[in-house]
From TrEMBL:
This is Protein regulator of cytokinesis 1 isoform X3. The gene is Prc1. The lineage of its organism: Eukaryota, Metazoa, Chordata, Craniata, Vertebrata.
Length: 564
């Protein structure tokens, strides 16, 4: 049983007890029956009125709850539609009071959500308006519904975040471009003369409209200023190069150059003006020293002729080089020729450097060839002979390879230029072939001279006897006894002794009693002890293996050059 029901039964019992108590009092007092009836009716009326009022009040409460439920349901439906959420539904059987409470709570929650969304929408619209005004962009178009949906708000937030990023990016771009513009204006000593330039340089950065059009105009202004700056720098560099060239031609002292150079760095307007004044001063000085300047230019011209491998015919083709009438016109002709040759050399620098590399390698190869035919190279210490042989062998391999590479480059050059590439008046390959042929002929001539010299010396010694001479001991250190005995045995078995090594063996040199002719222009060879050439000596030269003497090696070919 519910407690309310228990209370109701207790109320009935209490009412009955009260009536019993009233009747007892009335009985005790002695109130007549008719008055008792009246009093009982009064009690009944009071109790009934009280209960009726209470019932009416509760009925009124029920009606209010029902009306509140209806109102809340209607408002809740509207709010759900505005907020784009599912309608509210109660689950299970609930009382009117609980339903009204739940509906009222839900309505309050929906109202709060609606208020928050509208406040956020207003804030986002304000931010969007501010950003769009700065970026000069159209406002965000959102649905005209009173309350935005969560999806609409999310899209609006993303849009505003994108605008912020765009603003920061453009602001950084603007600040960077503004800094460069200010630097260029300072370098050019330029004062802002348009309203846009003044807005960029002088106005507050936050007040500048960061539209794409303004950014593009900024970039255009920066390009114009940079172009002017580059042109100014190019002019200043040209003036510096002209000054340096005039300094070299006029042979201006270094002290005077340093004094002028310190005040002419940069490319500002005042520096450009100072450079131009220095050029004018040097030009006037050049006109006063025309002959000296032309001679310096001729030296420079000769250097470019050498770099471009000009032949004598090509050099003689420039007649002003040999003129002696030192005039302004002659100077201009030389200047023009130097500029032409300089451009020609720079345009084909790689090819000329390749030919120069071949020339240097060829000279080095010829130097090694001359050293290879020099008998004194065997007295060198420290492994120089081995190094030279390795370098010579390497050059013999790299020279043909370099020639092939140059041939391929020259073929491409001749196809592009539609003319023949010449070195010292010849085709490069003809020039190379001529150098190799001259080298071969030189080797043949040297070989023939050696053969003729040996032949004449042999005939002289056979006719008049050998010519004794004291051999040089420098560079020969005492050998060990074993080596001495071995060499003595070999020398005696071949019936001849090389005059360059006989002193080491302790042999005695005798002067021939016969008169002898003066030696030829070549260095005389040493003779045998008997003054006659034995057959063993002839066999000994070309067939003898390398002899080791005091740490040096004598090849068979070298030993032959010392024998008769």
């Amino acid at each position: 049983m519910r407690r309310s029901e228990v209370l109701a039964e207790e109320s009935v019992v209490c009412l009955q007890k009260a009536l019993v108590d009233l009747r007892a009092i009335w009985e005790l007092i002695g109130i007549p029956e008719d008055q008792r009836l009246q009093r009982t009716e009064v009690v009944h009326k009071h109790i009934k009125d009280l209960l009726d009022r209470m019932i009416a009040e509760e009925e009124s409460l029920k009606e209010r709850l029902i009306r509140s439920i209806a109102i809340c349901q209607k408002e809740l439906g509207t709010l759900c539609a505005e907020l784009h959420v599912e309608p509210f539904r109660e689950e299970g059987e609930i009382t009117i009071l609980q339903l009204e409470k739940d509906l009222r709570t839900q309505v309050e929650l929906m109202r709060k959500q609606k208020k928050e969304r509208k406040q956020e929408l207003k804030l986002l619209q304000e931010q969007d308006q501010e950003l769009c005004e700065i970026l000069c962009m159209p406002h965000y178009d959102i649905d005209s519904t009173p309350v935005p949906s969560i999806e609409d708000l999310n899209q609006f937030r993303k849009h505003v975040a994108t605008l912020r990023e765009t603003k920061e990016c453009r602001r950084e771009q603007f600040v960077d471009i503004k800094r460069q513009i200010i630097l260029c204006m300072e370098e050019l000593e330029h004062t802002p003369d348009t309203s846009f330039e003044r807005d960029v340089v002088c106005e507050d950065e936050d007040a500048f409209c960061l539209s794409l059009e303004n950014i593009a105009t900024l970039q255009k202004l920066l390009r114009q200023l940079e172009m002017r700056k580059s042109q100014n720098e190019a002019v200043c560099e040209g003036l510096r190069a002209q000054i340096q060239e005039l300094w070299d031609r006029l042979q201006i002292p270094e002290r005077e150059r340093d004094t002028v150079a310190m005040a002419m760095t940069g490319s500002k307007a005042k520096v450009r003006k100072a450079l131009q004044l220095e050029v004018d001063r040097l030009e006037e000085l050049k006109r006063q020293n025309m002959k000296k300047v032309i001679e310096v230019i001729r030296m420079e011209l000769t250097q470019y002729w050498d770099r471009c491998f000009y032949s004598q015919e090509q050099r003689h083709a420039f007649a002003p080089y040999y003129a002696e009438d030192y005039t302004e016109n002659l100077l201009h002709l030389h200047d023009a020729e130097v500029v032409r040759l300089k451009n020609y050399y720079e345009a084909h620098k790689e090819l000329f450097e390749g030919v120069q590399k071949w020339e240097e390698s060829w000279r080095l190869f010829l130097d090694f060839e001359r050293k290879a035919s020099d008998p004194s190279r065997f007295t060198n210490r420290g492994g120089n002979l081995l190094k030279e042989e390795k370098q010579r062998a390497k050059l013999q391999k790299t020279l043909p390879k370099l020639e092939e590479e140059l041939k391929a480059q020259i073929d491409l050059w001749e196809q592009a230029q539609s003319k023949t590439f010449v070195v010292n008046g010849q085709k490069f390959l003809d020039y190379v072939a001529e150098q190799w042929e001259m080298h071969r002929l030189e080797k043949e001539r040297a070989k023939q001279e050696r053969q003729l010299k040996n032949k004449k010396q042999t005939e002289t010694e056979m006719l008049y006897g050998s010519a004794p001479r004291t051999p040089k001991r420098r560079g020969l250190t005492p050998s060990t006894p074993g080596k001495v005995r071995k060499l003595n045995t070999t020398a005696m078995s071949n019936a001849t002794v090389n005059s360059s090594i006989r002193p080491v063996f302790g042999g005695t040199i005798y002067r021939s009693p016969l008169s002898r002719l003066p030696p030829s222009g070549s260095k005389p060879a040493s003779s045998t002890c008997s003054g006659k050439k034995t057959p063993g000596a002839v066999r000994h030269g070309p067939n003898k293996e390398n002899l080791e003497l005091n740490g040096s090696f004598l090849s068979a070919g070298t030993l032959k050059s010392f024998q008769i």
